Amino acid sequence: MEIREENQGDSITLFISGEIDGTNVDEFEEQVNGAAEKTQGLSLDLSDLEYVSSAGLRVFLTLQKKVKQMGNEVVLRNVNEEVMEIFSVTGFVKLLNIEV
Question: How would DSSP label each residue in 36-93?
Fold first, then answer.
């Protein structure tokens, strides 16, 4: 997994590529939470994300809740077919803010 951060004024976009699984989920959680704490608008570009495990799904859900409690928003963008299938099968499409 690789995460590249791009600042755009008062918002941040994280470009996430590779796979999120048990081997790197702690790093993923640390980076997305760190970005969420320093911006009002957080976007996650998932166009190059190939796979997300249940541990990764938990991070997406807790991030969404945390950001909402802060009065901010996180948007998932450019979700590819494979990852969208995982979000659909698990019911996460109803829980996450996914921009189509």
Answer: HHT-SEEEEEEEEEEEE-HHHHHHHHHHHHHHHHTT-EEEEES--HHHHHHHHHHTGG
Question: Residue 20 is which amino acid?
Answer: I
Element (H or E) spanning 27, and its range? helix 25-37
pLDDT (tens digit per residue) in 1-56:
999 999 988 899 999 999 999 999 999 999 999 999 999 899 999 999 999 999 99
Tokens standing for 91? 């019911």
Q: Which amino acid is at 95?
A: L
- Alpha-carbon distance of 51 to 58, in angstroms, equals 14
